[in-house]
């Protein structure tokens, strides 16, 4: 057994019905954890959970913007898995716009999902994993920020602001968890561009705004800014989540880890 092994650990991954979250759920399951996928997409979420390696995994409906939905989903998770040691606050949304064209409803949606949703995830994760919580064994929370929190890329002003908020939420939650003896490490990752539904949509949207001649040119510009010379892959993000969830990261808390091929350095 290595320090990366997650056998016996129980994990909840938000936004795990597709994209990065699905890949994170798969990697956690491969490392030995039992995994609950929480998402607003019931059908896709259930299919994703069925596809996970090993037994005991599940799907629970979770709208991360809703406090009651969190209470219910976390209770179901603890009941189904027999505890909770790992929470990955991955669900998020991106709506591209020039600053001059911002739509208030779109801004609210991004604030609700990315900031409120992550904040509520921290609230419920810490309450459940701290010593007096329903799971009570401490654990690890990994928040998914973005390289957008570390650079200025055109067309994603509010998205970038919400991901900077995820970064700060991470630090303060880690501080409180340490000071109050919760035994929960709290970290975040800053993924670079990955061609999921969201990543591919972003390249298309910034081209439509006239910021790049085509989606391919937008992707080329990102690669140009990336010392590693390529886009990110789902597995690049998922493996780092496994590391942060595992005992290999036992002395890592309050950290933000760039997983962007150097784009944000
Ligand atoms: N793809 C990228 O290039 C990239 C880069 C940096 C950061 N990120 C971040 O990674 C995370 C995952 O991105 P992705 O590319 O997989 O996106 P995606 O759009 O493919 O998947 C997002 C998932 O979140 C779920 N979701 C949305 N709102 C929800 C809510 N209110 N409650 C529960 N689930 C909800 C969706 O149903 C979906 O399954 C996001 O936080 C995103 O901001 C993505």
What tags apply to this protein structure?
7 strands; single chain; alpha/beta; binds nicotinamide-adenine-dinucleotide; seven-stranded parallel sheet; 8 helices; 265 residues
Reading the helices and strands in chain order gives: EHEHEHEHEHEHHHE
Q: How many runs of DSSP E, i.e. beta strands?
A: 7
Query: Describe the biggest sheet?
Result: 7 strands, parallel
Beta-strand percentage? 5-15%
Rg calculated over all Cα atoms = 18 Å
The N- to C-terminal Cα distance equals: 34 Å
Unreliable runs, pLDDT <50, ≥5 residues? none
Strand order of the largest sheet: 3-2-1-4-5-6-7
Number of helices: 8
What best-fitting shape do the alpha-carbon axes yield? globular
Helicity range of the residues?
A: 40-55%
Structural class: alpha/beta
Arithmetic mean pLDDT: 98
Instruction: Catalogue the ligands.
Output: nicotinamide-adenine-dinucleotide
Describe this structure in words.
The protein has 265 residues and is α/β, with parallel strands linked by helices. It has helices at residues 19-30, 42-50, 67-81, 104-129, 157-179, 197-208, 215-224, 234-245, and strands spanning 10-14, 34-39, 58-61, 86-89, 139-144, 184-191, 256-259. A 7-stranded parallel β-sheet has the order 3-2-1-4-5-6-7, with helices on both faces. The protein starts with 9 loop residues before the first strand and ends in a 6-residue tail after the last strand. Bound molecules: nicotinamide-adenine-dinucleotide (NAD).
């Amino acid at each position: 057994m290595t320090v990366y092994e997650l056998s016996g650990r129980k994990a909840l991954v938000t936004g795990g019905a597709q994209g990065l979250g699905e890949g994170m759920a798969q990697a956690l399951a491969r490392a030995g954890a039992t995994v609950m996928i929480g998402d607003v997409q019931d059908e896709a979420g259930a299919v994703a959970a069925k596809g996970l390696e090993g037994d005991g995994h599940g799907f629970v409906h979770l709208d991360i913007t809703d406090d009651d939905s969190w209470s219910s989903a976390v209770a179901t998770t603890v009941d189904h898995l027999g505890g909770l040691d790992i929470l990955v606050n991955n669900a998020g949304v991106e709506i591209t716009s020039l600053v001059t064209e911002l739509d208030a409803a779109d801004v609210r949606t991004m604030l609700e999902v990315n900031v409120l949703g992550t904040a509520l995830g921290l609230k419920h994760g810490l309450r459940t994993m701290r010593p007096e919580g329903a799971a009570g064994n401490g654990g690890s929370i990994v928040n998914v920020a973005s390289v957008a929190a570390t650079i200025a890329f055109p067309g994603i002003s509010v998205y970038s602001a919400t991901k900077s908020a995820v970064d700060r939420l991470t630090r303060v939650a880690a501080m409180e968890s340490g000071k109050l003896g919760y035994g929960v490490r709290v970290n975040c990752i800053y993924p670079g561009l990955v061609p999921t539904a969201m990543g591919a949509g972003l390249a298309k949207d910034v081209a439509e705004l006239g910021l790049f001649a085509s989606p391919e040119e937008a992707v080329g510009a990102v690669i140009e800014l990336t010392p590693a010379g390529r886009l990110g892959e789902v597995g690049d993000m998922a493996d780092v989540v496994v590391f942060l969830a595992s005992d290999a990261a036992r002395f890592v808390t309050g950290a933000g880890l760039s997983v962007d091929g150097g784009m944000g350095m």
